[in-house]
Write a structure and sequence with these properties.
The structure is a single chain. The chain is built from nine helices and 15 strands. By secondary structure, it is of the alpha+beta class. Strands 2-3-11-8-13-6-5-4 form an eight-stranded mixed β-sheet. The longest helix is centred in the middle third of the chain and has 28 residues. The chain is globular. Belongs to the iron/ascorbate-dependent oxidoreductase family. GA3OX subfamily. It comes from Brassica campestris.
Amino acid sequence: MHSTLSDVFISHPIHIPLSNSPDFTSLRHLPDSYTWTPKDDLLFSASSSDESLPFIDLSDPHVATRVGHACTTWGAFQITNHGVPSRLLDDIEFLTGSLFQLPVHRKLKAARREDGISGYGVARIASFFNKQMWSEGFTVIGSPLDDFHKLWPRQHLKYCKIIQEYEEHMQKLAAKLMWLALGALGVEEKDIEWAGPISDFQGAQAAIQLNHYPICPEPDRAMGLAAHTDSTLLTILYQNNTAGLQIFRDDVGWITVPPVPGSLVVNVGDLLHILTNGIFPSVLHRARVNHLRSRFSMAYLWGPPSDLMISPLPKLVDPLHSPLYPSLTWKQYLATKATHFNQSLSFIRNYLSSDQIS
């Protein structure tokens, strides 16, 4: 029987008591435990830039070239004409808003266990930082039926249907984006056997992460979600009409990704970085907060089957470009990330075989 991603989190629990979570609406001043300085995150005060992320129309005849270029130079881009109905984006935003507007005691009915992966709670990366983040989240893996029934005893089926439809559209879009990006590097369907007989990546695994960044009394000293890369192949993000997402590039610093109605943000994850032998950078990103409007974001975190060996594609390796990474599974990588966090890619580059990665 295939192991699931849940096994990783059972082995690497996070110890952050949810009972200490504040009711953000009741706070008029930023508590010390939520006040960030460069000591808490070296990139907290890094320079920012007015540069903008590539914006790509998926109906553009040169879309593969544009996606490939954006993945190579930025590791992220925004898309329009992506085929996800605007009604469905409205529905997932409505669901997210409805969930986080519930009273704290109701949300805690579906709290994520310390060794769990689904449910309500703070970001797992919180355990790597001394200060707390001005946000709350809800993770969906598999069916949300049990959790949603705890939150909405009479309306859970309506919300489950939205999640199911959203997942179906996101899975198709992720597969399309994957082929566009890899196609720009000359990778063909026959080069990736696990994509399946019709190359639609039906064996892929995914999670949906719903995030809420409440109005903050002192946003310049707070952090919504600290800087991190994603442990995915691709992440597809929908954000409501409030800015907060920032992407980091060494040569320009932090850039803000303004929400464009109906658009989605796509970013390269650590596994696609490995698969492309480092050609596509896994982009560092974070979320800031503001004092006027709360912000919602909905991330689709897309990866391979958890036991599938991932390694640089043979087509992207030659005598001049030797493999930078060993073969490892998503499950192994997540276990490494749970210990080494943002140093995980450099950590595994130092190993010659996946046997040495626990």
